[in-house]
Specification:
143 residues, alpha+beta, Aminopeptidase, 4 helices, globular, transferase, Acyl_CoA_acyltransferase, GNAT_dom, acyltransferase activity, transferring groups other than amino-acyl groups
Length: 143
């Protein structure tokens, strides 16, 4: 079950989950926490399973009804058990977007591809890391 944790973004438990999404980058973690605390339109939910938070998703629903994932993380011990997919599906059910969009790196691109996202390379960052845009269309578009 997804639980709204936006007001707990600076708690140790939620910060630890966010830390997985930002690869332990302290500056990125501080920026993420600040964003969840100050930006009204951004959402932050954690997935609870048997009383334990096993992952989280942060997203913004834009004016074109696209759910833009800002952060997605699963506790390492719970990866490859379907929790990431469950989080995305619950967010889809709750927000009812026309599409879901995520930008990620090579480490997570297979996750998105495996759950039905179309994946396109958007190039390399100056540090050489390749970035990908992942899109999942939730409704058939009329021509």
């Amino acid at each position: 079950m997804l639980v709204n944790v936006k007001d707990q973004a600076d708690s140790s438990e939620i910060s630890q989950l966010l830390e997985y999404a930002v690869y332990s980058d302290e500056n990125a973690l501080a920026d993420a926490v600040k964003r969840y605390q100050t930006e009204k339109e951004i959402e932050l939910y954690a997935l609870e399973h048997e009383g334990e938070l096993v992952g989280l998703i942060g997203y913004v629903l834009d004016d074109q009804n696209a759910l833009n994932i800002t952060h997605l993380a699963i506790v390492p011990e719970h990866r490859n058990q379907g929790y990431g997919r469950a989080i995305v599906l619950e967010a889809l059910y709750e927000a009812k977007p026309e599409r879901i969009i995520a930008e990620t790196d090579e480490d997570a691109v297979d996750f998105y591809r495996n759950i039905g996202f179309v994946v396109l390379s958007i190039g390399r960052l100056p540090n050489g890391i390749e970035r990908f845009r992942c899109v999942y269309e939730t409704e058939l578009q009329e021509d």
